[in-house]
C-alpha cells in the first residue's frame, strides 16, 4: 500500500536494569507503546518496528535507568488526499458508509448515486481519500467510493445461477429409492392357525346317602 512508508529513525530510550537480560524485546515494546497513534514527528501513525539495533557499547546510567540510543526501521501509515486505499465496510447508514482500513483506521465514505455501487457490510471496497482528519492522536479519513473489489455476500441473481448448476451433482448424490409392495399375510395366517377346541361341562352326581338316613346297623339293633 502506497500510504505505508518506511523510515529509519534513531531514538533515545531509558531501559530499566531489570530488563537488561531481555534488552531487545524490552526496547521494541518501548518503541511500540505509541503504535496506531498519530505522531507529528512521523507525520502518520506507527504500525511496526523492524531491524532494531543498539548504537554504541557504553551507556550512561541516569537515576538508576540505562540511557541507550537505538536505531530501527519504522513502518508508518501516512495517508494523504488523492490516494486510493482499500478497506472493509463495517457500518452503513442512509447517507454514509463506515470503512475500516488495515483493520485499524476508520474512513467515512459518501454513498454513491448509483444503486448498483452500494456495498453491503463485509464487502471489500476501494476509495479515494478526500481528507485526512487528525484529532490529537486519533487519525481518520473521508473519501469517495471507487469500486467494490470483493463482495462478502453475492447478490440473489448470482446465488440463483450457482444453484442452477448444482442439480446434476445433487441427483447423483441421492441414493436410489426402493419401492416395496404389500404382502398378503392371509395364507400364512391360515397355515399357522390352530383348530379351536370346544370344552363341554360335565356334572357328576354323587350317590352317597344323606345324613338324615339311618344306617342298617342301627335299625337292626332297634328290632332286637
Automatic annotation (TrEMBL):
GO cellular component, one term: RNA polymerase I complex
Biased composition (Polar residues): 183-203
Disordered: annotated segments: 149-224
Keyword Nucleus: yes
Ranges of residues in domain RPA43 OB: 79-161
Pfam families: RPA43_OB
Keyword list, A-Z: Nucleus
Highest rank taxon of the organism: Eukaryota
GO biological process, one term: DNA-templated transcription initiation
Compositionally biased tracts (Basic and acidic residues): 156-167
InterPro entries: RPA43_OB (IPR041178), Rpb7-like (IPR045113)
Keyword Transferase listed: no
Compositional bias per record (Low complexity), positions renumbered to this chain: 205-218
Designated name of the protein: RPA43 OB domain-containing protein
Gene source species: Elysia chlorotica
Amino acid at each position: 500500500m502506497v500510504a505505508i512508508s518506511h523510515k529509519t529513525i534513531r531514538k533515545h530510550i531509558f531501559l530499566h536494569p531489570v530488563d537488561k537480560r531481555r534488552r531487545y524485546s524490552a526496547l521494541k515494546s518501548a518503541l511500540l507503546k505509541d503504535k496506531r497513534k498519530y505522531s507529528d514527528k512521523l507525520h502518520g501513525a506507527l504500525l511496526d518496528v523492524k531491524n532494531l539495533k543498539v548504537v554504541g557499547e557504553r551507556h550512561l546510567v541516569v537515576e538508576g535507568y540505562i540511557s541507550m540510543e537505538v536505531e530501527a526501521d519504522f513502518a508508518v501509515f501516512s495517508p494523504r488526499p488523492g490516494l486510493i486505499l482499500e478497506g472493509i465496510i463495517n457500518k452503513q447508514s442512509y447517507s454514509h458508509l463506515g470503512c475500516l482500513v488495515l483493520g485499524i483506521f476508520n474512513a467515512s465514505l459518501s454513498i454513491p448515486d448509483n444503486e448498483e455501487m452500494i456495498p453491503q457490510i463485509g464487502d471489500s471496497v476501494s476509495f479515494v481519500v478526500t481528507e485526512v482528519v487528525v484529532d490529537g492522536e486519533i487519525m481518520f479519513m473521508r473519501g469517495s467510493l471507487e469500486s467494490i473489489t470483493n463482495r462478502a455476500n453475492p447478490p440473489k441473481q448470482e446465488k440463483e445461477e450457482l444453484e442452477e448448476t448444482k442439480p446434476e451433482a445433487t441427483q447423483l448424490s441421492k441414493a436410489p429409492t426402493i419401492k416395496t409392495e404389500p404382502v398378503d399375510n392371509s395364507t400364512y395366517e391360515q397355515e399357522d392357525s390352530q383348530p379351536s377346541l370346544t370344552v363341554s361341562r360335565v356334572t357328576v352326581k354323587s350317590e352317597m346317602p344323606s345324613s338324615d338316613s339311618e344306617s342298617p346297623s342301627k335299625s337292626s339293633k332297634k328290632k332286637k
